[in-house]
């Protein structure tokens, strides 16, 4: 009997189709100096770039009619140059008495992405996409089953956050006016496979207005399935964002199956890179672990996870584990773990001395799993 070949290693960055049109250039793609230079090259007053940036990032305004400090004769041209339309909301779902809002966006080329705004008692968090689709091919993920359409631009990534901040400030989310405080790159796509745009977006999010949105870097979380060279590159950027490693299995045999990038970077290599991130930044790493019934939720795997994370003298203080009840996808063999198995998994990790918190799931009555809304469309 001929031995079947194993899964092919995924490339570090998946190439997009040639000839694809680029998203419209937007001020969020540019530094303040580049914004000014662009207007000057177009024969427009360079100082107007700061006014446009103040409207977008400082006042969360993008309607030209509200930009009354711009001359009426030039307003349309200025807005077209630096504030073009990037995406349109085509479908929205709400849950948790209106405190969770999921939006399906259509980009300029028809690509679909999702974002989710979640309001809690002490914070408001938006989960954003970094790619249209995803090339990491994790079989339990709705987005991964659709493949990669394309990378998003820096501005497309940022715009999801600006719209969320505007919705909070204007009181569109249940609970009255408030402030967006946290951003997590945990929507569609692998952020570190779109490294340049992701890093540009992070910079726009944390720079003070009018350069950017003025969020705290410590309130920005960048997720990855484990692109080891990119994790190390991010550690050297000097930006103290939180790194979230989507591990989902503590052993190579299982992780090769459910997180195919593991065929290129093993569990040991991936955890080593995450620990290196902690060592260089001082930021505790989050381990994301989607609990799947009879797949990765066994008590012995909780014990093994504790050993893997604390091994090689690392100890337990560098990491926090977030077991996540899986959002079921219709027709998938991957289903949510039983409550008693999730509780035992958490107990074992806590007994090991590892800080562990079962993730609070939001949006259970809507298409909660990332990619489901786009797939249904």
TrEMBL record:
Q: Where does [4Fe-4S] cluster bind?
A: 134, 138, 141
A single GO cellular-component term from the record reads:
cytoplasm
Positions bound to S-adenosyl-L-methionine? 189-190, 223, 246-248, 327
Kindly give any further remark recorded in the entry. Reaction proceeds by a ping-pong mechanism involving intermediate methylation of a conserved cysteine residue.
Q: Where in the cell is it found?
A: Cytoplasm
Organism listed in the record: Nocardioides caeni
Task: Cite the PROSITE patterns for this sequence.
Answer: RADICAL_SAM
Q: What is the recorded name of this protein?
A: Probable dual-specificity RNA methyltransferase RlmN
Where is it mostly found?
Answer: cytoplasm
| Reaction it catalyzes | adenosine(37) in tRNA + 2 reduced [2Fe-2S]-[ferredoxin] + 2 S-adenosyl-L-methionine = 2-methyladenosine(37) in tRNA + 5'-deoxyadenosine + L-methionine + 2 oxidized [2Fe-2S]-[ferredoxin] + S-adenosyl-L-homocysteine; adenosine(2503) in 23S rRNA + 2 reduced [2Fe-2S]-[ferredoxin] + 2 S-adenosyl-L-methionine = 2-methyladenosine(2503) in 23S rRNA + 5'-deoxyadenosine + L-methionine + 2 oxidized [2Fe-2S]-[ferredoxin] + S-adenosyl-L-homocysteine
Q: Please state the Enzyme Commission number of this protein.
A: 2.1.1.192
NCBIfam families from the entry?
A: rRNA_mod_RlmN
* Organism superkingdom: Bacteria
Q: Which protein family is it in?
A: Belongs to the radical SAM superfamily. RlmN family.
Single Gene Ontology BP annotation = rRNA base methylation
Q: MF terms per GO, please?
A: 4 iron, 4 sulfur cluster binding; metal ion binding; rRNA (adenine(2503)-C2-)-methyltransferase activity; rRNA binding; tRNA (adenine(37)-C2)-methyltransferase activity; tRNA binding
Organism classification, top ranks?
A: Bacteria, Bacillati, Actinomycetota, Actinomycetes, Propionibacteriales
Q: How is the cofactor bound?
A: Binds 1 [4Fe-4S] cluster. The cluster is coordinated with 3 cysteines and an exchangeable S-adenosyl-L-methionine.
Cofactor(s) the protein requires to work? [4Fe-4S] cluster
Q: Which residues form the active site?
A: 114 (proton acceptor), 370 (s-methylcysteine intermediate)
């Amino acid at each position: 009997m001929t031995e079947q070949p194993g899964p092919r290693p995924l490339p570090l960055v998946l190439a997009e189709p040639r000839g694809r049109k680029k998203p419209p250039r937007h001020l969020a793609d540019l530094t303040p100096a580049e914004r000014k230079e662009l207007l000057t090259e177009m024969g427009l007053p360079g100082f107007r770039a700061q006014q446009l940036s103040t409207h977008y990032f400082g006042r969360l305004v993008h309607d030209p009619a509200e930009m009354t400090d711009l001359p009426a004769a030039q307003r349309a041209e200025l807005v077209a140059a630096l504030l073009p339309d990037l995406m349109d909301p085509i479908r929205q779902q709400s849950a948790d008495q209106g405190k969770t809002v999921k939006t399906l966006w259509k980009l300029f080329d028809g690509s679909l992405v999702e974002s989710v705004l979640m309001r809690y008692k002490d914070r408001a968090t938006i989960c954003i996409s970094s790619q249209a689709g995803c090339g990491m091919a994790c079989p339990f993920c709705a987005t991964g089953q659709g493949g990669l359409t394309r990378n998003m631009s820096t501005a497309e990534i940022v715009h999801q956050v600006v719209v969320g901040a505007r919705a909070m400030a204007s009181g569109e989310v249940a609970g009255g006016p408030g402030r967006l405080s946290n951003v997590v790159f945990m929507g569609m796509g692998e952020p570190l496979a779109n490294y340049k745009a992701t890093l540009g977006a992070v910079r726009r999010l944390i720079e003070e207005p009018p350069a950017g949105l003025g969020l705290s870097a410590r309130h920005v979380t960048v997720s990855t399935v484990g692109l080891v060279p990119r994790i190390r590159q991010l550690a050297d950027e000097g930006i103290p964002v939180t790194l979230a490693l989507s591990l989902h299995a503590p052993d190579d045999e299982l992780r090769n199956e459910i997180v195919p990038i593991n065929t290129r970077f093993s569990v040991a290599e991936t955890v080593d890179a995450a620990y290196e991130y902690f060592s260089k930044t001082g930021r505790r790493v989050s381990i994301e672990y989607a609990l799947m019934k009879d797949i990765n939720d066994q008590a012995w795997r909780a014990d093994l996870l504790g050993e893997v994370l604390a091994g090689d003298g690392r100890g337990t203080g560098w990491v926090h584990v977030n077991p996540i009840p899986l959002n079921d996808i219709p027709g998938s063999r991957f289903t949510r773990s039983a409550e008693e198995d999730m509780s035992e998994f958490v107990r074992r990790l806590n007994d090991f001395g590892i800080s562990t918190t079962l993730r609070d799931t939001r949006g259970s009555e809507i298409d909660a799993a990332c990619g489901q809304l786009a797939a249904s469309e």
